[in-house]
Amino acid sequence: MASYDLLGNIAIVKFKPGTIQNKKKRFAQQLLRQNTLVTTVLEKTSRFKGRLRTLKTRWLAGERTTEAVYRENNCTFLFDVDTCYFSPRLASERKEIAQMVRKGESVLVMCGGVAPFAIVIAKNSNVERAASIELGRECSKYALENVKRNKLKDKVEILQGDVRKKVPYLKERFDRIVMARPNLKDDFLDVAFKKIKKEGIIHYYGFYNEELIKNLRELIERRAREAKKKIRIIKIKKAGDIGVRQYRYRADIKVMN
Ligand SMILES: C[S@@+](CC[C@H](N)C(=O)[O-])C[C@H]1O[C@@H](n2cnc3c(N)ncnc32)[C@H](O)[C@@H]1O
Description:
Elements: E1 2-7, E2 10-15, H1 21-34, E3 40-44, E4 57-62, E5 67-72, E6 75-80, H2 91-100, E7 106-110, H3 116-124, E8 129-134, H4 137-149, E9 156-160, H5 163-166, E10 174-179, H6 189-195, E11 196-209, H7 214-226, E12 231-243, E13 246-255
Parallel strand pairs: 2-3, 7-8, 7-10, 8-9, 10-11
Antiparallel strand pairs: 1-2, 3-4, 5-6, 11-13, 12-13
Helix pairs in contact: 2-3
Bound molecules: S-adenosylmethionine.
S-adenosylmethionine binds next to α3, β8 and α5.
């Protein structure tokens, strides 16, 4: 009848079309009873939409709030589920990338949201500095608050703005770039190739039907040629499903020059 995501104190439920209101309310009450940490149950009423990848919710039970306090990978995050994208399903991705970061690296996270990648990396590795850039103003405010909450002001920097407009003006290059990009047209790979150090690593997230996965490899190789970069695609892995035979893939790219 329903599937749901738990975001700390908030559960967001997606019901099958045609589910009647009474059943939704009963399901919500049951969730509150079964999960003592959940104090609010919301119904997901839209998919992630627009450049900011926000969704719409409707209150079903418990406290009337859309602000979540969520914990993962030894970190705490505060954000509004209606105005900020956040996926708890990426927790293992964040951990995996943090484990790859070596001592003294500088990391840039593009499309960083409320900064979960940068914060998990900073808390769980010996990174020198992690910068996170996000378009949404509201999201960026929460990102700043999350840096404070996790006591990472000396390691994590939050930048608000468009990756395409702002990143080209950053003075430095990075050892590692995480491209936690939305499922939208712009791949931003040209921007990343300009800002990665020699022998640096790019983690690129792309969304593909299983049968069209070769398009991901072709895109990366084409963009590398255009940027005159020699690359080695170390690995392409599934990093979550987004629909029927549709997956989020992560490509780990080593940039040789
Ligand atoms: C898929 S979400 C990822 C968020 C975050 N990295 C996470 O894991 O929770 C994509 C994010 O990219 C942001 N975004 C979209 N276009 C952008 C752009 N041109 N520059 C910077 N951020 C952008 C959206 O606002 C959204 O927060």
